[in-house]
Amino acid sequence: MKRELITFEVGGQLFGLDITSIREIRAWSPVTRVPGVPHYVAGMANLRGAILPVIDLATRLGWEPTLPSERHAIIVVHIAGKSVGLIVESVSDLVQLDSGSMQSPPTVGDEEITGFIEGLSPIGDRMVMVLNLRALAGADLIRADD
Length: 146
What we know:
mainly beta, 5-stranded mixed sheet, 10 strands, 12% helix, globular
């Protein structure tokens, strides 16, 4: 069985998300910082009149915060009935993976960060890390009752 992913870069690394979880890909637009949100939430954006929380994906992964520019993009995803934006450096390609080519993440390293990765798969000479959206959003944004 084949799986379609949109690939993108964060921190120079290649990541992927299942195409069915992506609602849209937007050009970068400034966000409004809001007090009291988790450190990885860059702010809120206006999505056609709706308030959209925007996650700095690099910060969420434990890397240096993104200094967004016009070359960045926001991938709008749907998690547990809610829309959330993810800041990425660039959007790459639509790729198809064989289900059997994806491997579980290794158990070494930071448990929380490996929890964000559903699996890894080679694409050409690179490795794509398929993200686990529910783990990325975290309990701060997505409550269990949603």
